[in-house]
Structures
1.
Amino acid sequence: MKVGIITFSDGRPSVHAYVHEVCQHFQNLVEDALRETGEVVPVSAQEIVCSSESALAQSKYLASLGCEVTIFNFAVWSFPHFAVIAAQFAPKPILLFSNINPQYPGMVGMLAAAGALDQIGVFHGRVSGDIRDPQVRRKILAFLRAGAAVNRLKGETFGLFGGRPMGMYTAVANQDQWMRQFGIDIEHIDQWEIVRRAPLAPQDEVEHAFQWLSQKVRRIHYDGQQLTPEKLRLQICSYIVVREMAKELNLDFLGIKAQPELTDHFVTMDVAEAFLNDPYDWNGPKDPIVAATEADMDGALTMEILKHLSGQPVLFADVRHYDRDHGFFDLCNSGTHPTYFAGYS
């Protein structure tokens, strides 16, 4: 994730000249520490902010480079209105960070800026400490990950196949609320599209996938009724066509109702959902596409947030039971268990 860094100084020219080297030193510490994590691409402002003009210019500069989050860095006293001006254009959310440097009132500068941002209603986080301390760095990274995740949701599209499943109020959300709160659009797609397109899936890929599964999994529990080789092939077809529809419609994540229509009269979507969520399929590595079973919209949104936070596949499951004697949770659900997690079993 690309993170902007603006370091603030004193607005009095003579004082700024005296503390400039201190400010630059602590900005370098922050930049180097973040780069060493391997998670962050730090982008520092072109100059230490010491005036209204530079606050405006440097915040616009970071925005122009596509930074996802901004750190306001304080090593000395700075005029609070510099942070207020920068907050108008700096990529949000904003984290205020104060270095440990008792020789100068950096903490005072951070808290004065924080109070000003509170007064004008700008959300921000606050961390103080030594950036080289793992615990301090952990707090900073937690904020940065969350901020980047929130921003990555904006402009995404959720594909809703079907509608409310089996009367579940908790599985549906208002379209306007998602756009207002998260910036996510919702594309409604009829489940018939899966049924219609499944026979059109490339048969060479279907057969390749069938052989790949037959060789890779420990056992396929055919029972001659609910699961047969033909039904497994149809489930593979369903995965392929949903995967392709996600590309065609630019869906970032999705949910499939399935129950009861598809499960009763077609096939379940479990295989499709599992491999959509996986970081691979029979064609090799790929990016996971969050797919929630039973078109659970809030479940899908939670999964998408967790994917952005962790960069890993996400599991959707119901807590069916907790076994106190053996100390484990029984997590069962109709799909959305990526095969990726079998590697941990």
2.
Amino acid sequence: MGAKRTLVLKPNEIRKASLIIRSGGIVAFPTETVYGLGANALDSEAVAKIFHAKGRPADNPLIVHISSREMLNMVARDIPALAFRLMDAFWPGALTIILKRKDVVPDITTGGLDTVAVRMPAHEIALALITGSGVPIAAPSANISGRPSPTKAEHVIKDMDGRIDAVIMGEETRLGVESTVLDLTVTPPAFLRPGGLGLEEIIGTIGEVNVIEESVRSPGMRYTHYSPKAKLILVEGERKSVLFEIKRLIGESRKQGLTAGVLVSRESALDIECDTKYILGSVNDLKEVASRLFSGLRFLDDAGVDVGIAEGVFPEKREGRAIMNRLRKAAKEWVSCYKEAGIK
């Protein structure tokens, strides 16, 4: 499928990667959030290769990555003053803003919408690739659609080897979750996807925001995402009740002859005995948890467990909002251990 051989490029081989982009190819590259799979955002045939390689539904819009504000003017029109306040505060960085698109941006890049999602990544390799290519780069996460996003180059190779033209080998990504998405085509602005930038920081900069978190305008929000191959059960609630429920689920799995793996906080790790477990980090260090989340979901696959169980006790503030959003999207079953308990 796609390329016959995926070139593995070093960070100092940006020129080769840029030539591939300019020639209509697709290249995986590191950003501060997750690894992206990029193509010339203005070339519909090149962008189509992204959807083909990922198996991504064609109505799911892509984020257009830029390296300068001049490049923003290539793809967006009627840019409001609010956008510049946000750019001044958070670009380069993990904020994607949705603006009115220019006609030069093909429908396949925007999912047929009249808007375009744009961000400027805070990563020297990503910025060098965009600048060297001389075009804005459309890029979703560099994984098979529906799988956990890649935060390491080896994740990309495992999913995409032979499907794409090249991958630039960088270090593990710093943030570990995708960008926050904010729609500036409506008033007040709509917070569509939690990510590496906290809602609190956005409100502190521009004031009122309408929190929606589900919208066809937002890249990566239409379909199931982030799922490991094993069935994932998310257990939410107060820590004591969550631990009790996780132990019960592990016991049930063993009775059925199934192996269970648990994604757990550092605080609970010693309290849980199971076939295998992955420590996401401390509930008091949400940056650490976010950076390890997708590696944890992939760990369940590498371990070959039948059932995955995730401890959902992370406070929903700043990075915690993105962590819980991704866990809920990855889970096939959700067990609530709050006062009004139930299963959804």
3.
Amino acid sequence: MLTMRRSATHWLFVLLALLMALFLFACSSEDASSNNAAGEGNTRVVKDSDGVEVTVPERPQRVITFSEPTLDSVLALGVKPAGTVAGRGLTTVPAYLQERAGDTPIVGSVGQPNFEAIGALNPDMILVDGTSVNNNPDVMAALGEIAPTVMTGYAGGDWRKNFAIVADAMNMNEEGKKVLEEHDRLVAETSAKLEPFKDKTFSIVRWQGNGASLILKELPAGQSLEELGLKRPANQDKFGGGHSEPVSNENLGDIDADYIFFGTLGGSSVGNPNAGGNADSNAAGASLDEARQVPGFDQLTAVRDNHVIPVEGSAWTSTGGPLLVQKIISDVDTLLVQNPAMQP
């Protein structure tokens, strides 16, 4: 009974927040009537990741990105969004995006939109994907009442395809092609330096609390290692469910490899981003110290050989777009190729 009351109260607050957002949206629409009038008729139809046609402004000006990949993609196109959501388990955008995002307003977290803040920004387009609120039809419908909402892809999908849908929604296809061309150039340049490591195996681990999770091949970091030609251990050479795969301490050997890229999201989670902690490489180093206290961790090959590389968890162990992948490739060059301590 108590659970039902709490649930009812939660949805009452959501409904009230939505009504407030729609009210603010209506008011701000009046204030921006000249802009809207100029934009009337200047629309185009795009297809989202499900093939659904969505009518959007010809040149969107006030875009809200409702996930890390959509924020990443818009910033990669050189556009600063009107608003965005905090990164997974964070209260800010991921560290690798902070300089580009600047003072972009935060309008909720990946799973909890702030409808009032969204409506106040009077967006003309909202970009979402399968890492955010796509599995909540009520929230999707509410966002669609505020502005045209484009679904850009699903968790574990090809980041290139998801990025292409964002570029198309922004009417910036040519700019998107240039971003992908630069990515291909960076992959080729870095891959050529990795010949000494081609017979080694690489694991990507997120350490959260007192346990590990594996980042497999479907997430951007996994896709990047494959593009670079770096091998995964046999048990990790597979696609997962679009999220990290937990590993019990009894099976800690499952995370082992010749090298481990080791990250954390601190003590926070998607549902509790205020729990504290950090997701940068310094936090990864602190988590590595904690992991060494777990029985069996020091027996891992990568640990014995001092081949554990602390990395930024919000990039390596989360999800994103072309800027995240650029960060990963740059880290491979700096932290592996150019690091004398990591030579095979």
4.
Amino acid sequence: MGKKKDTEIINEWILLEKTEKNRNHENRDGYMTNLSRNRYGEMEDVFGGTKRHRTIRAVQAFDKEEQVKVTMETVHATDRENGIRYFLTAFHNHDFFEMIYVYRGQCTTTIEGKAGTLYEGDICIYNLEAVHQLGVEDENSVVFNIIMKKEWFYNTLIPLMDNTNPISGFFIKALYHIASPAGHLVFSLTEGGESAFFLNKLIAEFCEKKEMYQNMIYTSLSGLFISLARQYESRIADRSIGEDKVDMIRIITYISMNYRDITLKTLAEYFNYTERTMMRLIRKYTYRTFTDIVTEFRMNRACLLLKENRLSVEEITAELGYGDRSYFDRVFGRYYHMTPARYRKEYSK
């Protein structure tokens, strides 16, 4: 027998969800379902709209080493046994990115109070902290929910992306609170296109969990976003430039590529500004200082290197552009309330 196709692996997972009961599903106690009706037979508004919503943090949603996670939203076997035919999640938001992929059928989504329908082949990426709700309103629909930590974007995706592309702008604006980024992005896959290939590969890898599957997931996810960026580029030619005619996305990306030895002077010279003007623009559009942003990139890189357990703490200090180990320890301690050595002991692979 030859190697299974990714779609075959995914369809087998769906079949298990549809036929096997009690597969460690979360219960539907916090959901609105076809059973959530009042004495008049009307659907009860058990959530109180977007003003009353639940906030979920990454520490609750991910295991310690996870950066990316995939779940399936569908009416499964246990639901049907309990009489549930469709469901809506509670309104919620979170400090990680979420991507919805309608693999089969359709679903509804309400984002920041605006309702809409996603159809088979549609992808919706929710922004950080956007209040939203997902509904699976028929038994045959299958939706995959892919959640991604911010750290994965800092360390992996942003350095790969063309910083002039609107999709990279979406993530950079969200990560650095530039202006008010959109609550979501929506794409439609073309049959057999490269985006579909990467997305199905990602889900199949998560399902099978073979050796080094997380690395394959990160590679597939990077390929997916680059593919979507190409699609988005052809759709929208806009570049996010503020009233000062400064492209803050390019500035943040340049910092991300040069944080080891960058200074405010070299940054200002590269973009033809004075140091004072550069400092003012960064503060205006990100609500942070130049030093804050450089430190954030260094700390995210430090965590990655400490987890890999490949370099000594002294070597990591030099890799990040710090000339002094004790100073690195102090900065790291302010961020994570522990020493780099302690962090490595608790989180190294």
